[in-house]
Design goal:
four-stranded antiparallel beta sheet, alpha+beta, two-stranded antiparallel ribbon, 6 strands, 99 residues
């Protein structure tokens, strides 16, 4: 399971985020997605910890906490939803009749 961490400062690094979560247990992995075009951090990240108990402790302690001038949003990460494809609209008669 992963932890979603939102409303992060753009100055956050994997190392600084790791240090904050390490106070609640063993951190297995930290990911900070970046924008494809600009390379700039997107303002959120994911943290994986050693056990469910450590993840729960980190979520309870850090959700709503102020860090680097921002109030963190910390919760269990939800599975990534698949995006629909353009081809998925072929069955829509309104789409078909429009072109």
């Amino acid at each position: 399971m992963s932890i979603y961490v939102g409303n992060l400062s753009y100055d956050v690094t994997e190392e600084t985020l790791n240090a904050v979560f390490a106070e609640y247990g063993a951190v297995k992995r930290v990911q900070l997605p970046t924008d494809r075009e600009t390379g700039r951090m997107r303002g959120f990240g994911f943290v994986e910890m050693g056990t469910d108990a450590e993840e729960t402790a980190a979520i309870d302690a850090l959700d709503g906490a102020e860090w680097m001038g921002r109030d963190l949003k910390v919760n269990k990460a939800k599975p990534k939803e698949s995006r629909g494809s353009f081809a998925g609209n072929r069955g829509n008669s309104n789409f078909r009749n429009r072109y």
